[in-house]
Amino acid sequence: MAAISLTGLTKVYPGDVTALDALDLVVPDGEFFALLGPSGCGKTTLLRTIAGLEAATGGTVAIGERDVTALPRESGTWPWSSRTTRSSRT
């Protein structure tokens, strides 16, 4: 596993709805981590942003030493979204 480091992470949705506001967080390698909070406070947005499913409006996401903030999010980038099927891989 690798550490997760968020620096100034911001996510603003259309209509000026701020879901994440300059969030700084470090989860050290091997540590257990939980997000707790009321509905609508940004937990899912944070997890989706770390996973690369949502683009951050600002700030950085690093996993280990690698900045993953701007990795491609196109279809086919992830193995489970590949258009090839098991039978066509031979």
Automatic annotation (TrEMBL):
PANTHER family: MALTODEXTRIN IMPORT ATP-BINDING PROTEIN MSMX (PTHR43875), TREHALOSE IMPORT ATP-BINDING PROTEIN SUGC (PTHR43875:SF15). One of its GO terms (molecular function) is ATP binding. Pfam families: ABC_tran. GO terms for cellular component: ATP-binding cassette (ABC) transporter complex, substrate-binding subunit-containing. This is ABC transporter related protein. Residues 20-73 form the ABC transporter domain. It comes from the Bacteria. It comes from Streptomyces xiamenensis. Keywords: Cell membrane, Membrane, Translocase.
